């Protein structure tokens, strides 16, 4: 009597049946062995499991199995890596010629390159940590269309396939099988053998959804992945005890029902691409076409799908759509936006900006909330400039009222103008009306005297065009300082204010040097940089950081600043400049934004 295979046995042994073709015998044997393994080792209840399996055929998917083998063996070819950790991976020519890359339903770049973003390892670790805490967690990876969510699915599958039994044991919940859904198709993957089977209902033309959920419920050690591609009518399956990961562009209609059903449910946000990583992609692809990267980046920012579009026709289509959406969107839509970046509704483009105008921006720092908190920002400089005109309210106090709405989580300050305008006008009231507190960064006990108040006047708050004038108030205009939004020059000391909603707002040493040059402050002059933050949580997080953590990654205080190959600031002067730059976190007294805003608005 034949025995079912053990967990580490391959699942395509054949059983001789004289009246059937070898291929059909092999397929049936593979299916029989798979079902036997599922019943013997993973069924929660044998009767329920038998009933669930009777409804499906499992057709061995040899091409998909080969692709899983390729991922497990790490046979993608590394073609380059950026300083931030972006990896460019090329699909082997023989595999690409035979199968393309449609097995994973993944669009690669024209060069056959697939990119593993520098945030993927931390994103994977964040997922694992969530499932350690609750192995039934449902995770939705969201973010703008064309940001790299589908690529992460392949990276995620590769990491699971490459995990050793010891690593799986350490996680504690790691499944043996993955059920991956693409649109309405289902592939069952065995992580131990890299085998893959297409899941087909035994009765043709039957809606499988409810019965696939029953299948997941019948077995332990199952994991569910969902990739809808562009189909917005499909939502993920929801099986209470099964851990799940779905990559979905934000669409309130699609997610509304799922959010009600799925519990526990966590949203995780994909950050935009950096300029440097997009530039590396461009160089590696070497399209040979006349391509203005700077212009494209100005229009579309860190959205790879549109920024690195080579086709002149498609570039024009994207640009036309961007301009149309900017003209059609109104203040109400932008301020009320939350998960509406990809809504395809045509009803006055309500909540419909499709990632052309706004983007999720999450700094993937280590910690319990990595990727789980988001800020909404403009996708690009072009979008920021165009939309800024719509959000530039005639009366500054209107920005104050909007900021109160934002603090109550009833609106979004997408451009940052509500915070910026409110901060500069609150400061202009003078310390007798609204007192501001300042905490020095990077000191256990502040070695720098922290002023209780600044005895400034409105005319000492500056925002400048090309000609800097200490006595000129030029507000509101686009900031040109680069590093800060506005300045106070008081008793021979510079105080530069940077308003931000972000959890991290680093800068480059070159930016600091350019800023100092503009205001005429050499490396020996003390300059104070003050971060103005709207919530106590963010204030506390900024204050606890070391001073050097406010610099961009890769910045080196031991090296000179160069322009091309020419040294513009020696290493010694770089250190002096840094030592004479103090960083503070600044806020209304007692961190009470609401009281300060109401005092200003009612005055």
Task: Please describe what this structure looks like.
It comes from Seminavis robusta. Helices cover 37% and strands 17% of the residues. The strands form five sheets. An eight-stranded mixed β-sheet has the order 1-8-7-6-9-10-5-11. A six-stranded mixed β-sheet has the order 14-21-18-17-16-15. A three-stranded antiparallel β-sheet has the order 2-3-4. It starts with 21 loop residues before the first helix and ends with a helix. The protein is of the alpha/beta class and 603 residues long. A hairpin with a 5-residue loop joins β2 (77-81) and β3. The protein contains 21 helices and 21 strands. It has a domain at 403-602. α1 packs antiparallel against α2 (46-54) and α3 (62-73) crosses α6.
Element layout with pairings:
Blueprint: H1 22-42, H2 46-54, E1 56-60, H3 62-73, E2 77-81, E3 87-90, H4 93-99, E4 113-116, H5 120-133, E5 138-142, H6 149-162, H7 165-171, E6 177-182, E7 185-190, E8 196-201, H8 209-218, E9 222-227, E10 244-247, H9 252-261, E11 265-269, H10 275-285, H11 293-300, H12 304-307, H13 312-328, H14 331-336, E12 358-361, E13 375-378, H15 381-391, H16 396-407, H17 417-428, E14 436-440, E15 461-462, E16 486-490, E17 493-499, H18 509-519, E18 527-532, H19 536-543, E19 561-563, E20 566-569, H20 571-579, E21 581-588, H21 593-602
Parallel strand pairs: 5-10, 5-11, 6-9, 9-10, 17-18, 18-21
Antiparallel strand pairs: 1-8, 2-3, 3-4, 6-7, 7-8, 12-13, 14-21, 15-16, 16-17, 19-20
Helix pairs in contact: 1-2, 2-8, 3-6, 16-17, 16-21
């Amino acid at each position: 009597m034949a025995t079912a295979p053990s967990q580490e046995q391959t699942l395509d042994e054949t059983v001789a049946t004289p009246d059937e073709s070898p291929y059909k015998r092999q397929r049936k044997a593979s299916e029989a062995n798979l079902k036997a393994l599922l019943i013997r080792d993973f069924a929660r209840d044998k009767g329920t499991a038998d009933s669930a399996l009777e409804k499906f055929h499992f057709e061995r998917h040899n091409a998909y199995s080969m692709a899983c083998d390729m991922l497990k063996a790490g046979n993608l070819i590394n073609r380059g890596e950026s300083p931030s950790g972006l990896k460019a991976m090329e699909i082997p020519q023989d595999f690409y010629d035979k199968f393309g890359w449609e097995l994973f339903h993944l669009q690669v770049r024209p060069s056959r390159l697939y990119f593993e973003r520098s945030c993927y390892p931390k994103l994977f670790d964040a997922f694992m940590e969530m499932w350690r805490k609750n192995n039934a967690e449902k995770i939705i990876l969201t973010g703008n269309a064309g940001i790299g969510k589908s690529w992460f699915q392949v990276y995620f599958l590769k990491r699971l396939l490459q995990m050793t039994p010891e690593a799986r044991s350490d996680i504690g919940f790691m499944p043996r099988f993955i059920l991956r859904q693409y649109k309405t198709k289902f592939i069952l993957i065995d992580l131990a053998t890299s085998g893959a089977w297409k899941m087909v209902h035994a009765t043709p033309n039957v809606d499988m959804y409810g019965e696939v959920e029953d299948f997941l419920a019948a077995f332990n050690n199952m994991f569910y992945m969902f990739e809808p591609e562009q189909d917005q009518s499909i939502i993920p399956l929801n099986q209470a005890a099964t851990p799940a990961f779905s990559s979905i562009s934000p669409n309130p209609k699609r997610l509304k029902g799922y959010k009600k059903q799925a519990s526990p449910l966590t949203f995780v946000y994909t950050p935009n691409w950096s300029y440097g990583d997009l530039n590396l992609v461009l160089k590696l692809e070497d399209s040979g076409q006349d391509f203005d990267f700077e212009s494209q980046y100005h229009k579309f920012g860190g959205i790879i799908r549109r920024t690195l579009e080579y086709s002149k026709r498609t570039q024009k289509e994207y640009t036309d759509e961007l301009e149309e959406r900017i003209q059609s969107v109104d203040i109400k839509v932008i301020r009320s936006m939350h998960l509406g970046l990809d809504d395809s509704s045509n009803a006055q483009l309500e909540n419909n900006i499709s990632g052309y105008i706004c983007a999720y921006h999450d700094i993937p720092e280590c910690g319990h909330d990595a990727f789980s908190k988001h800020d909404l920002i403009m996708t690009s400089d072009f979008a920021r400039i165009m939309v800024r005109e719509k959000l530039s309210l005639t009366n500054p106090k209107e920005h104050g009222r909007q900021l109160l709405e934002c603090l109550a989580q009833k609106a979004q300050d997408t451009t940052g103008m509500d915070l910026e305008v409110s901060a500069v006008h609150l400061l202009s009231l003078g310390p007798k009306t609204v007192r501001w507190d300042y905490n020095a960064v990077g000191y256990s006990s502040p070695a720098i005297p922290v002023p209780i108040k600044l005895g400034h006047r409105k005319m000492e708050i500056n925002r400048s065009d090309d000609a800097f004038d200490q006595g000129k108030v030029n507000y509101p205009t686009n900031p040109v300082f680069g590093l800060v939004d506005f300045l106070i020059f008081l008793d021979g000391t510079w105080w530069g204010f940077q308003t931000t909603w972000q959890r991290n707002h680093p800068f480059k040493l070159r930016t600091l040097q350019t800023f100092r040059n503009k205001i005429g402050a050499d490396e020996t002059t003390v300059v104070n940089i003050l971060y103005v933050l709207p919530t106590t949580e963010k204030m506390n997080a900024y204050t606890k950081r070391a001073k050097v953590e406010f610099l961009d990654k890769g910045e080196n205080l031991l090296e000179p600043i160069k322009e091309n190959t020419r040294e513009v600031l020696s290493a010694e002067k770089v250190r002096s400049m840094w030592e004479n730059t103090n960083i503070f976190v600044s806020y209304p007294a007692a961190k009470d934004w609401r009281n300060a805003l109401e005092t200003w608005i009612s005055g």
